[in-house]
Model the fold of this input.
Amino acid sequence: MSKSTYLCFFMTPERPLSKKKITQQTISISPALKDKIEKYVYENNKRYPNDNRFKSISRFYNFVMEHAMESFEKGKTLDDFESFVDADIQSFFDKISFNAIIPYYENAIKTNRYESPTLEKNTFFFFTLRRLYLSRIDFDDLKSINTQFSRIRNYIFSNNITKEFRLDLFTGKGREDLTGVFEHAGLYKNLSFENYKYTAALFGLLGAKITDFLYSKKDDYCRLDLKATNLLYRKDLAKKERIKLMNHNVSYFINYNRIINDKDYYLWMKLATDKQVFIAFDNEEVKIKWVNLIENEIEKFGDKDEYHLNMLKLFEKLHWIEIISEKDLSFQFKLSESKYSHERAYLLENLAKRARVSYENEIFYLKDLKS
Done:
């Protein structure tokens, strides 16, 4: 039979001191719960000696019950106690997040789909999260992991962009036999994909390796099968090993098999970062159309004094040239004269319409016709 303990405390209505009345209330609770309450009040009284809520067990109970009843009167139910976001987690994420209008942000991050969440580009973000988990989780204790994940889960659901956020853990004989299944389902395609790949990277940073993967674009659903590595239990940085594991995890989301089955511009964005790749046009009319369009808008919306520089930037972005000095308006061709003489001639003719073009030691210079 389970044992119970009687706990007596005083209920104090909020009234002027001259009319204050105290009512005694006795309840029956388990010894374990009684110990938890006493420990909680004692520790918080030491931490916050001026906080009247922790001056005694009675004051603590009175505060909790009074505010619980106020919540019920406002429409809250007992089930809401399982999903509220605690102040500690809320305060932490408020420092590294912001409020945004979801439809606007959903569209704005569309082109970011295949950008990798690397440690180098997101150092503060990832290390801040790592400190949060290391300070609150004992990875040898499943209860500790589940408790903290539940706190994070409540915060995630409070943002109204998630349908499911679940972690199931399975133990084995040893520490590295720990495995898990993480499931995440979202409400917004682009926001969800960002969350999926950043979560995969974070698992890698902490020391969990993705061993199997399922992603449904149609259902906006992601499942990660995870396995603990020795990094999960190490406190040292081990930067190279963690980066390697992060890259492994993220590769399930960002890879060329996925990119070539998506919109064309995702592949073009990747190619644009390689200076050895350049843009060639299918025919002369297409080339003239695009160059004239960009040239006209440079003239319409740009600074007149920067016209020549902006034209050089256009051809540099096509990877035809490399600007040597923006101040001197100097550049070198990246296209060989033997293979791409037509493109080189077209570029020089275009620039010569409004500038004097000179050449010295394989470097070309522009001078405004008016100077």
Q: What stands out?
A: The longest helix spans residues 189-206. The chain has three domains: 5-81, 88-259, 284-368.
